[in-house]
Design goal:
The chain is of the alpha/beta class. Helix content is 40%, strand content 13%. It has 8 helices and 7 strands, in the order ααβαβαββαββαβαα. A 7-stranded mixed sheet has the order 3-2-1-4-5-7-6, sandwiched between helices. Helix 3 links the parallel strand 1 and strand 2. Helix 3 packs parallel to helix 4 and helix 5 crosses helix 6. The longest helix has 19 residues.
Length: 257
Amino acid sequence: MAPLEEQFSRTELLIGKEGLERLKNARVAVFGIGGVGGYVVEALARSGVGTLDLIDNDTVCPSNINRQIIALHSTLGRYKTDAARERIADINPEAEVNVYHTFYLPETADQFDFSKYDYVVDAIDTVTGKLMLAEQAKRAGVPVISAMGAGNKMDAAAFEVADISKTSVCPLAKVMRRELKKRGILHLKVVYSREKPKTPQTLGRNPEEATETQKTAEQAAKRRERQTPGSNAFVPPVVGLMIAGEVVKDLIKGKEL
């Protein structure tokens, strides 16, 4: 096994020994261990963050394999948090990892004491959950960064870090701006894209070739499919790594954000 001091030596060349110590002593909560959150966790573990809290109630399924770093044929059916914890242990055995098989919503929010965290990452999908995370973080005075819409996007280079008040085009960011304002929250660091979301195609069939009966069935299927965005192997990782980069840079500043 490689010595841990050597493991983080390349990082130390950039942020110094004090920066490494700050990361080692930090506790970061990552809500959502999917396409975005999985890469956040990966980068934070490889950066030497000492304590990670992983919150997700989902299990790995075959449709995750195209984009989620913890999704493998060997992890199918396992809790994503458990698969991520096992991976972190192989990256940094000294890291402390706390897992919660919890679907974060306003109804489950009281299970988490945000005062324990140095940083919170929002990589969940539900608007109600994202709003509650922002509210809890604000009350606790803890910095938070939120992922906006990464689904139905193809241009990984179009993502940027911004305050929610400066966002445009992204439908999720628009909803978040409006709802946060109602709650008295005018600022939130986010990663978002101004690329217009693409419309997902119908799976496995060309609608123009279907019979009228088939078309009727497909119309119902399309309505269901609108709730499941398309995704790929390169957009969610970029969003996740951008978020992790912001977390690391903010943590090594060593000051209130």
